[in-house]
Structures are given as C-alpha cells and as structure tokens.
Task: structure prediction
Amino acid sequence: MKIDVPAGMVRQEVQLEAEEHERVDQQCLSIDPAVYGNVSAMLLIQKVTHRKKPVFGPVEDTTFYKIVGSKELKGDVVQQCDQIYETWKKVGMPLVCVDAGGLGVGYQPILARLRVQVRPITLHGGITSSNRNVSKTEMFSHMQRLFEQRAIRIGEIPHKLQLVNSLERFRATYLDDGRLVYSIKEVRGEHGDWACSCALGLWAMRRGPVVAVGYR
Result:
C-alpha cells in the first residue's frame, strides 16, 4: 500500500545530546617576585565554570582553574612593572595578585600609578590567614586540595615545563609537634617561584567578585 506524505512534511532526526559550554568567571595575573630580583614568575589563571545541559535532568555546573599563560619578568622593578602593565592591558585588565614581601613591595606604588588593580598578599609562617596576611600553610594546602580534586588544568603555556618541575618539587611534611610544613626544593637556583605564583593566584581567586567574560 502506498502512503502519501503531505506536502512540506520532511523526515527529521532528533539528536539527543547534552549542550556543553565554558564560562570564564574570573582572571588573575599572579606574580611571585624572584628572590634576587632577576627573573620573576607570572601566570595568567582563569576560574572557569563548565556548564552541561542534559536533554533530561538538571543543569550541571563544574568549577575549575585553568592556567592559560606564563611570562618571565626580567629587569629591575620598574621594567618588570612595565611588562606587567602591558600584559594586564592585553588580557583584559584582570586582578593582579602579588607576593607583597621583598621585591613585591616595590611593585605596588608603581602599579597603583598605572591604575592596575592589585591584591597584595603578605605571606607568613603561622597557621591562620586574614584578607592580606596569608599563612603559607593555608595557601599551599588550598592548592594541594585543588590538585587532589583535579580542579586545576595546565594549558600549553610557554613555561609549562618549569611550572610542572616546580610543582613536582613541592613537599608537605608533618613535624613532630603535628604541624604541617610545605617546602619546595631548590634546584640550580630556582626557588619554586612558579609553584608559588600558582598558589598565590589560586588563593586570590578562591572568593571575591566575579568578573563574567561570557560563555564560549
């Protein structure tokens, strides 16, 4: 038997797939000034929400951190601030987080004159943290938890090898009195600046205002 198909009616195939998007919620340029002021480590870290919309069921949001850029800052404080400023403008004027100790003290007035939003963090050896005075133990513990939760992704950045090597030298040790101490083994003059830069940025973005860049 022949069945006549009404005019204009076409066969349609419905593909049942979940929609997935990523949204950059926040960006941070994180800087750990070099111990001797020669080459400092700067990372661009993004806080990303991955949204999955299943055909059936609730929307699933997953937050993770993605390291998308790196740069060695060379020269004196003024020269390094010029490099920070140029990068800051290029990547959309994100939050700048800097270790406020040592060479980092000199960054702040220069970057302030350039109208760069800076969040200085002073590290100490205690166990509790305030807004700007941060315990190294808490900061590194926070980074360790994120890695254990697989919430950090390292992109194809120029200094990926240096960052990974620095993170691999990262150690947590329990002392006899029960305190947890973190350290980074120095190798050929490299003091773990890349790992410290990573930990600083992750700490700075753990809370605070969200700067929505949009889904992509």
